[in-house]
Amino acid sequence: MAAAAAAAVPLRVCHQEIVKFDLEIKAAVQDIRDCPGPLSALTELNAAVKEKFRHLRGRIQDLEQMAKEQDKESEKQALLREVENHKKQMLSNQAAWRKANLACKIAIDNSEKDQLLQGRDVLRQRKTTKESLAESASNITESLMGISRMMSQQVQQSEETVQTLANSSRTILEANEEFKSMSGTIQLGRKLITKYNRRELTDKLLIFLALALFLATVLYILKKRLFPFL
């Protein structure tokens, strides 16, 4: 009974470790399947899985050895069947491991190809950008040259405008001087006309008085001749 109890302890521990390593392997295989890369990360995961398979294989061998050491044939056969199940499960895990590695490597290769294509696209975009920048710089230079020519033309037109305004100013000044001269002449003419009008009025008064005096003289003579008695 004591020997059986002593053998049951490592047997139970062996079962627990086999289950533990099996679950850890399944989780590690899933990590490999989901691994985005790079290859160095995949290599580290595979190294960990190999180590877990080594421990699992050792525990299965321990369990198989314990089964062979069993005294009862029924217990021996039961443990051997369990060992076979664990071996099948381990083979299934190894197949899943290989498939996960294949899928991961394909995904990494595709990712690297995409990165290369993206790198080419980036280089092409940079080249296109440089060409666009060069073309833009050329267009800007042409625009600046056009603006410079327009500004030169505007400056020339401004100079011509200033010259025209200067000529117009001189013309206005000359016209102003002529106007002043004409104003003096007009004022002199106005004075002369006023003086002439006054002289004309005086002449009219003198003529009227002379005519009145003449008529008075004629009437006086006629009166003396026709009416001497008056």
Automatic annotation (TrEMBL):
It is found in: Endoplasmic reticulum membrane. Residues 46-89 form a coiled coil. One of its GO terms (molecular function) is SNAP receptor activity. It comes from the Eukaryota. The chain crosses the membrane at residues 205-222. It is a single-pass type IV membrane protein. Keywords: Coiled coil, Endoplasmic reticulum, ER-Golgi transport, Membrane, Transmembrane, Transmembrane helix, Transport. Residues 136-226 form the Sec20 C-terminal domain. InterPro entries: Sec20, Sec20_C. CDD domains: SNARE_SEC20. GO terms for cellular component: endoplasmic reticulum membrane; SNARE complex. GO terms for biological process: retrograde vesicle-mediated transport, Golgi to endoplasmic reticulum. Belongs to the SEC20 family. This is Sec20 C-terminal domain-containing protein.
